[in-house]
Specification:
It is a single chain. The chain is α+β, with helices and mostly antiparallel strands. It folds into 2 domains: 81 residues; 131 residues, Heat Shock Protein 90. It has 6 helices and 7 strands. The strands form 2 sheets. The chain has a 5-stranded mixed beta sheet, covered by helices on one side. Strands 1-3 form a two-stranded antiparallel sheet. A hairpin with a 3-residue loop joins strand 6 and strand 7. Helix 1 runs antiparallel to helix 2 and helix 2 packs antiparallel against helix 3.
Length: 231
Amino acid sequence: MNHSSLQKTATGATDFNPAVEAAILARISERLAHDCNNLLAGIMALGEEFQFHLEDGQPFPEGLKLLQGNVMRTKDLVQRIVELPDKSGPRSHHNLNDLAAEAAELVRKFLPRSLQVETAFATESLPVYVDAAAFRWMFIELAWAASGGPSSAAGKLSFATARQAGPSRSGIALTLTVSGEVKPPGKTSGPEFLHVGPFVKKHDGVFSVEKPGTVFRLWLPEADFTETEVA
């Protein structure tokens, strides 16, 4: 969230309401993450300088390589934290397997440990032209609603990707299968989705519930790399 977004959120606010609080929190997180990145860059540079002066065969080079690798992974993590609040962004070309793998990792972090999250992604690349931020939140909401959220009992969410022909062109499917006692006691109504509908409409996709409460399928057009963002 940039400064103008923060100002826009706070404009006209007479109380310290949740919207203002969220905007301030997002801004602080962004600044702290920026500072953290600067510190990590300094550590990385120092490690490279030490490695340059060390001779082969000493134990220090391997340790420095490990240090540098951890720094790079930490920087990637910080970047993901910064991007997480974003609900939408520009569309670009992605491998659906990569997007789904990252989103599934996030799902594992907020669902109860009694729920297993399994993935069976296609071995081939599945190119799509999508808004990655919107996909992330669509995926998270789908998993949350289908599972029943934090009050779910033991069960399993299985995500799979595959090529699947559409009515007029080749496409790619993301399927969520729910098994076990996932829904909490007394919760039998179907999930209501807020992000799925807009995402499907924006990306000319199709969303279906093939077995009520147990199988959810998202179909997207396969990218041919001629796509461009429409303003």
